[in-house]
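Notes to self after the Tuesday call (sharing in case useful).
The group wants a holo model before anyone commits to mutagenesis around the pocket. I volunteered. Ligand is adenosine-5'-triphosphate. Logging inputs and output together so the record is complete.
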Amino acid sequence: MIVLDEVVVRYPGAQRPAVDGASLLVKTGESVALVGPSGSGKTTLLRAINRLVPITSGTILVDGVAVESLQDKALRALRTRLAMIAQHHDLVDRLRVHQNVMAGALGRWSSLHALRYLAFPLRGELDEARNALARVGIAEKLRAPTSALSGGERQRVAIARALVQQPHAILADEPIASLDPELAEQIVALLTTLAKESGIALICSLHQVQFADRYFDQIVRLEGGRLERLKSSVA
Amino acid sequence: MTQLSPHFFGSLLVPVGQTIGMACAGMLLALVIGIPLAIAVATRAPGARAIAAGLSALRAIPDLTLAILAVVLLGLGPAAGIAALAVFYTAMVGKVSAELLLAAPVPPVDALRATGSGRVGLATFGLIPAMLPDLLSFGMYAFECAMRASIIVGAVGAGGIGTELVGAINALDYARAAAIIVVLVALIAAVDTFGIAVRRYPRTGFVLLAIGVLTLWIDRPQLFALSHAFVTFAKMLPPQLSLPELGALPRLLWETAAIAVVGTALGALLGFAFGLVCARNIVPFAVVALVRRVLDTARAIPEVVWGLILVVSVGIGPLAGILALGLHSGGVLGKLYAEAFENVDRPPVLSIAATGASKLSTVGFAIVPLAWRTLGVHTLFRLEWNVRAAAVVGMIGAGGIGQALFLSQQLFFYKAMAAYVLITWAIVLAFDAFGERARAARLSAEGGRPRRRSGRTRARSRTRSSDRSLCDGSAGTGRFRERPPFEGRAAPSASARRSGARKSRRSASRSMPPNASARYPSRRRTSPVPRAP
Ligand SMILES: Nc1ncnc2c1ncn2[C@@H]1O[C@H](COP(=O)(O)OP(=O)(O)OP(=O)(O)O)[C@@H](O)[C@H]1O
Ligand SMILES: [Mg+2]
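Result:
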């Protein structure tokens, strides 16, 4: 469960806050579409939730824990529970696909385990990567070099990485930008279904609103940092 | 430690003065000869192509090899050092200044040409004023290189502190040798500092020229003992090797290649380990500051000086050469690798960190893979430089072709010595060509692949192997240091004009495709994102 209460984020030196008093409640298994024009603060809000950006005031609770107070180990533990799919689905080009996918497991692996995996992946670990890729429909790319993937495939690898993380929540930043409409809908369907089935809270920022209504439980709109409710969950 | 008494340091004043004087005098001659040659090339005077080719070829002879030749021709002492530096830096100044002048903006120069101005007018009123900041900056960089070279040419008896160091080592006076090395590192640091001052107040540079004139005057009897030089030179002709010497040649070449390759590998390993613990995005700043000092010191000591130290401790032979190259390269590569780690694209790193990964896992899964290509480029350049270095460290007893060269000089086998000089030259030329091709192959292999997010990725830079091997990249301050030397010439306006109409015309002298250089990230991207804890 994610709770935002009057969250304000102001970048150093910025005149006005990028996020200005946002409040939101997302239950497990629930999916929220975050829409709004470019520069309205969508990315900032998502990054604030897993503390990649510090918040200026307000409170963010993830599973009842206030994220502002977390340090080092506890912060890493928080991030392990929150999977982030970045706007540009930032995969590491030089790695193989399975290595990018299993990066999702880094939160539960020791550093030595992680480095060993880079050099000698075990069969069980590869199977885990393959399963995650199978859920997004590209199991055959397991050993492909990441740099050779198409945009849609990269997107799906990023989602597979999020799945491997076994998160309590997924924060997806415009996961369907620059995809063709058909693929875009597939990905949205995939994410929202996963959320429902696995009891994951999903917050997903979008440019287009087209199919938001069909797939998401809540729709909120950011404009100039302020949050406005377009569709609320029934319950 | 009586060696550290004021008297001892007093006794070093003369050699230190000689070293500085040699560098100044060598550079002075290089400027006097090199700049007119550069103007001839840049204004496309008759024979410009031949001059340019000659300068390139000349530059492939390592400085220490020139020094040993000069010692034979002019006798022991600073005159030999001056001559060697003058030749080496004439080639460098001539070639690089010519390229700088060719990069001058077209319209003003064409306007001058339209007035019917001759070549000298064209150069003095058009080309040189337009490129003056770049020329000055390059000049200072060259001087810093010359200063280092001035120390090491002493190792074969060409005067200055290098000769003093070899003397101390041969006399088994290690305390004195250690003290000299301290002085030497201090001298290099002082030159770096002075370099900053000259960049700020260019007029202080005239002091250097004055010192140069003075040194030339003092050494004039030896410098112009031409008849002796000619007689000795005649003894080198024709260059030839006896049968046993020919038989030993493959082993010597093999040894030199091994020193270069294994030395580079050792340097890469050291550089990798030290680079990781000296990148600001990996370890705390206190550690970075500490490790940087270590790397600075390793880098400040030239390969030849490392070689002198190591020959004493591990004995004569290739092992000393490998360690010497490895330690110096470790210092150079450590710094370059650290910069590569610091310059990786931030978003992928953040996205790995966002999975809750530990620092070390983030390094393994993101930072190292992202920097990998850059590490490869740096290492290849270093290998190329180390081929020269391997040929040169041999002369102080570290095995390979250099050692054979030095022995033949000591035994007055001048014909064999001349042959070894030619062979060294050929090796360096061959490896330079090989490096050039390897790079071209790499680039064309990558060229076809579409790049994502090209807009915000890499700062541009241009570099060619020859430009980097001007000096070994470990020297210098300011514009010519942080990056491969050549990129330093691109003043903001220069890069704008570079992309203009001139490009096609100059493409002969800059054979690198534009996107190629983009693989060589150099400027730090500053991210406005507040650092996540
Ligand atoms: N690192 C930063 N430093 C300072 N200001 C920033 C930073 N990142 C974003 N901003 C500013 O904060 C505001 C919100 O940016 P944000 O990236 O959150 O918008 P967005 O809704 O994700 O836009 P888009 O749809 O284009 O991705 C913008 O005005 C932006 O200029
Ligand atoms: Mg955004």
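Two things stood out.
Chain B touches chain A through 31 residues (CB under 8 Å).
Chain B has a mean pLDDT of 75.
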